[in-house]
Design brief:
This protein has about 250 residues and is an alpha/beta fold. Helices cover about 35% and strands about 15% of the residues. The chain is built from 7 helices and 9 strands. The longest helix is centred in the last third of the chain and has 20 residues.
Length: about 250
């Protein structure tokens, strides 16, 4: 699909060139790269090359999101992966919420991905269950982003298209079926309190993937959008150790 609306200032994709270890970062459903920019900048300061693509239909207008499919979102992330390969010999994928769902799908397709960093990855979103198989309303009003820290502004939509929710539900259901195909090292982080995605989603992923190396971290002071929340520095800290360990293994 072709987007009809301009990109909201601040919601653009971003790229930061560093060394040959790349981190592909995917934002979540109805979010934008702005939600992961701070952690992306943190990784860039550590020397990594970072790319966060804007998923199709995001960061413009929710009318654009209505016309998108789960394949459009996956293709946006896959194109970012292709772009990053031109600069990096080793690539990790970090995904938040639906971004983690897409990261798992990408890891299934590309076994050469060196590892996954998952933050509150979505397999179920209970608040959307009532809309399953519904044909109305066309748009659902959204509340404030689920962020514990005060005075944090996330660029997101104030309405969500019902069609997009159905696409997300299909994506999550499909991802449950591919977990046993995932073999890459994984560090999975869950917020202790998450009002959007139950923390049990992350526990389920860690239990089901076939990775020889998998680590489960609890973020104690953040809600769902943890990349913009109080545990932002902890995410970078835990990820750095994971990246350094497994990038050495990838090139050895």
């Amino acid at each position: 699909m072709k987007e009809q609306y301009p990109v909201i200032p601040g919601a653009e994709s971003f790229f930061m060139k560093g060394n040959e270890i790349g981190i592909l970062i995917s934002h979540g459903f109805a979010g934008t790269p702005q939600s992961v920019r701070a952690i992306g900048e943190g990784f860039a300061q550590l020397g990594f090359t970072v790319l966060a693509p804007r998923l199709k239909g995001h960061g413009t207008h929710y009318n654009d999101l209505e016309d998108c499919t789960k394949e459009d979102w996956f293709r946006s992330l896959e194109e970012g992966y292709d772009e990053l390969q031109a600069y990096c010999s080793t690539i990790f994928v970090l995904g938040q919420s639906m971004g983690g769902t897409l990261a798992l799908q990408l890891a299934k397709k590309y076994e050469e991905i060196a590892g996954l960093i998952l933050i509150n990855s979505a397999l179920t979103i209970p608040s959307f269950d009532i809309y399953r198989n519904q044909t109305a309303p066309r748009f659902i009003a959204e509340g404030k982003p689920d962020i514990k820290a005060e005075n944090v502004y996330e660029i997101t939509y104030d309405h969500t298209p019902l069609k997009a929710i159905h696409q997300l539900q299909q994506l999550m259901e499909e991802t449950v079926t591919v977990l046993t195909d995932i073999k890459q090292p994984i560090i999975a982080m869950k917020s202790m309190v998450d009002h959007v995605v139950p923390p049990t989603n992350t526990e389920y992923i860690v239990n089901k993937v076939r990775s020889n190396t998998k680590q489960l971290i609890t973020l104690e002071n953040s809600y769902h959008v943890a990349s913009m929340d109080n545990d932002q520095e902890n995410i970078i800290h835990y990820s750095r150790k994971f990246l350094e360990q497994h990038s050495k293994q990838a090139v050895s």
